[in-house]
Amino acid sequence: MIALLGLAARHGRWMLVAGLAAGLGLPGVAAALKPWLPELVTALMFAAALRIGPDRASGALGALRGLAGMVALYQVVLPLAVAAIALTLGVLETPVAMALLFVAAAAPIAGSPNLTILSGGDPLPALRFLVAATCVLPLTVLPVFALAPALGGAGAVAWAALRLTVVILGATAVAFAIRRFVLPDPGPRGIAAIDGASAILMAVVVVGLMAAAGPTLRSDPVLFLAWLALAFAVNFGLQLMALAALRGHPDATPLAIIAGNRNIALFLVALPPAVFDPLLIFVACYQIPMYLTPLVMGPLYRRLSA
User: Fold this and answer.
1) Which of 160, 215, 218, 294 has its CA 20 to 30 A from that of 140?
2) Which distant-in-sequence residues (6+ apart) come within 8 Å of 304 by Cβ?
């Protein structure tokens, strides 16, 4: 079993591609997995925390204070800039503007530490940022919602963010306890096995997240390709801009990955159907650049790190 998980770790980037293909080509399987997404995301968080361990995490607690400015930049300044531009142009309530606002205002996806691992980076800064950004999301969304009343009340989103925070902290606590008392020194083979399990979990998760993509691709391929092009431009564009701004920063790789890979689904499960129904296809399309990040952007991250 450990050998098989190690094999999955070595080919993790291609496993994500296989998950995307399965999500597009097997709509029945995608629909069946969709109700299990909360549990699968929790398992992803557990695997990321298990890999890091409590010793490394506790040694970096002091860095949490330094994250305040970066979180504010990512989740307050950027979405307010998007909202202000859209308001000036009179297009705030259009689906494209809403999609951009959702991406800018969201916290990182739960799998961002796993994407960082697969891209050759250190997952610890990604986990720190993920926890901090999710904890303050109920506050950071307030000015965004004030500028964009069409999004509905902030209470539902705040409650969804609090639930996600509890899940993240709970999964992390259990994983750290296991590392402390059951698996204090997993060694290289153990770490590889954890990475392999994470890759498998991410491949399964993306199948469920792609539930809306396959039917749209078959019924209206032009619409699908238009949303897909927007998803690629936003995701990789944000990553490249963050990478250029953070060049030379020790945490450039995880922070750049986080810049483009945001938990949009958190908003879509909390807002009125009239707001998010037109964007379901965008959420599905956005999974594609997310899960292609290690394959497409990974070589760039590794070269800059080296």
Assistant:
1) 294
2) 243, 247, 252, 253
Which fold does the domain 2-305 belong to in CATH?
A: Na+/H+ antiporter like fold (1.20.1530)
* The two structure tokens encoding residue 133: 């950004």
Whole-number Cα distances in Å, 121 to 114, 149, 214, 254, 292: 10, 38, 32, 7, 15
Q: Could you tell me the residue ranges of all domains in the chain?
A: 2-305
Angle at the Cα of 70 (from 132 to 38), degrees rounded to 5?
Answer: 35
| CA separation for the pair 40, 304 (Å, rounded) | 32
* Residue 58 confidence (pLDDT) above 70: no
- Contact of 304 with 247, CB cutoff 8 Å: yes
Q: pLDDT (tens digit, 9 = 90+) per residue, 72-117?
A: 999 999 999 998 999 899 888 888 998 899 899 998 987 888 899 8
Amino acid at 224: F
